[in-house]
Design a protein that fits this description.
This protein is an alpha/beta fold. Helix content is 55%, strand content 14%. The protein has one domain (3-239). α2 packs parallel to α6 (87-101) and α3 (40-48) packs across α4. The longest helix has 20 residues, at 220-239.
Length: 240
């Protein structure tokens, strides 16, 4: 069995509301949960890199389908994945839960000015959240930061360093955490801080956020081809 098929077998398959409830219960019960928001780039990199494959397949890792290509590919391979669980929607749900329950959240990643804007947004819109340590993604001591956060009794750690760095740094320190929701969140800080606009609702409804991003940043086209188009060809081969 190929690693790609194993990823689809491991993928969380229920809808996002049930997943949010699972996260909420794990927070309430002080359980540890490492979430990887998966897209074709995630799975493609795992196929090529043994260490990344190891973290994806670890029993402590939960894979959710961030990209629509993952959902469609799963259905082509006869895996019933209900819907996307995007990083932005997941983080927004966690912030709402954190605000309701007064949870402590730490942030790591993005540019310094983006991080500062996001911290202000959280203080303004989610005033009951306890903000823990925060550091931008260009600091030189990120591993030391994660170790310190693990000792800080946080409930949530959001890491925005992009694939594969964000997952790898969480995984290196995973055993140091006794509890907490730990997530690699990609470009989520940019959107939630207001630095970048999310795709309009019509694009999201039609699962065309990827197209909107290419419109806004044409340089993404090469990356899209490498990770999404080639990925779909692999899926079609597997289907046969």
């Amino acid at each position: 069995m190929s690693n790609l098929v194993r990823y689809f077998e491991k993928l969380y398959k229920d809808d996002k509301e049930n997943f949010y409830n699972l996260v909420k219960n794990n927070l309430k019960n002080k359980k540890k949960m490492f979430i990887v928001t998966s897209n074709p780039e995630t799975f493609t990199y795992g196929e090529k890199n043994d260490n990344y494959n190891k973290l994806l397949m670890d029993q402590n890792t939960t894979l959710v389908a961030d990209g629509i290509s993952i959902v469609k590919s799963a259905k082509m391979l006869k895996y019933d994945v209900k819907e996307r669980i995007t990083g932005i929607d997941l983080v927004t749900a966690i912030l709402k839960i954190g605000n309701e329950c007064g949870y402590k959240i730490s942030l790591c990643g993005a540019r310094k000015e983006v991080l500062e804007k996001l911290l202000q947004v959280i203080k303004s819109e989610y005033p009951n959240i306890k903000l823990g340590k925060a550091i931008d993604g260009y600091a030189s001591n990120l591993d030391d930061f994660i170790t310190n956060v693990s000792k800080d009794n946080v409930d949530v750690l959001l890491v925005a360093l992009g694939i594969p760095n964000q997952e790898e740094i969480i995984y290196r320190h995973l055993q140091e955490f006794k509890k907490g929701i730990l997530i690699g969140v990609g470009g989520t800080f940019d959107v939630l801080s207001g630095t970048k606009k999310r795709a309009p609702k019509i694009f999201r409804k039609l699962n065309l956020e990827w197209l909107y991003r290419i419109f806004k940043e044409p340089s993404r086209m090469k990356r899209f081809y490498q990770n999404n188009i080639k990925f779909m060809f692999k899926i079609m081969k597997l289907k046969k």
